[in-house]
Design brief:
Strands 1-2-3-6-7-8-9-4-5 form a 9-stranded antiparallel sheet, with no helix packed on it. It is about 10% helix and about 45% strand. By secondary structure, the protein is mainly beta. The chain folds into 2 domains: about 30 residues; about 150 residues, no CATH class. It comes from Terriglobus roseus. Pfam families: DUF2911.
């Protein structure tokens, strides 16, 4: 009986030390093989008109057989609009994104998905991981138009399209969802 208690105590001690080391960053979880592709690689989307430019840097997750909208990306819950690090939006000129004035600079993009209209938020707080929200630092939010893709898109993308001399559209596409917002260059 004493040996059984000793074994249980030793096992608990080992578990406690392992958890402590992980919490302090002393252990890595599931290291990636050198040269292996990321599960959600970093991607960029860019648009420019006469020197005015906009760039988005985001992690691009894939469906991998999962139901995305409403499950992996829950409705009415803030989403980082990609995977891993928060999505970064950068512009060298003032913009109108929908009805929101966005001064030149860098912002974190966050979306609030729903079955109907989505909301796009520009946040001045940079460098967060995942879905951390700093609402006090929000520049503002705008509604996005929702459409359906003709066929499912495996990897999430952010794209600029329908570019004219005055602006473009920013599209977020994944599964069969395409949400977009007009972007007007004020230069």
């Amino acid at each position: 009986m004493k040996i059984k208690k000793l074994v249980v105590a030793a096992a608990l001690l080992c578990c406690g030390l392992s958890l402590s080391a992980m919490a302090q960053g002393g252990m890595e979880m599931a290291p990636q093989k050198p040269g292996a592709p990321l599960a959600s690689p970093r991607k960029q989307a860019e648009a420019s008109i006469n020197g005015a430019a906009v760039k988005v840097d985001y992690g691009a997750p894939s469906m991998r057989g999962r139901k995305i909208m409403g499950e992996v990306v829950p409705y009415t819950t803030w989403w980082r609009t990609g995977a891993n690090e928060a999505t970064l939006f950068e512009t060298n000129t003032d913009l109108m994104v929908g009805s929101l004035h966005v001064p030149a600079g860098k912002y974190t993009l966050v979306t609030l998905p729903s079955e109907g209209e989505w909301q796009l938020v520009f946040c001045k707080h940079l460098g967060q991981w995942g879905t951390d929200r700093f609402e006090a630092d929000d520049l503002g939010k705008v509604p996005m138009t929702k459409a359906s893709l003709a066929s499912p898109q495996e990897m999430m993308s952010i794209e600029f399209g329908n570019t004219t001399a005055k602006g473009t559209e920013m599209h977020v596409k994944w599964e069969t969802t395409d949400v977009w917002v007009p972007v007007t260059f004020m230069k």
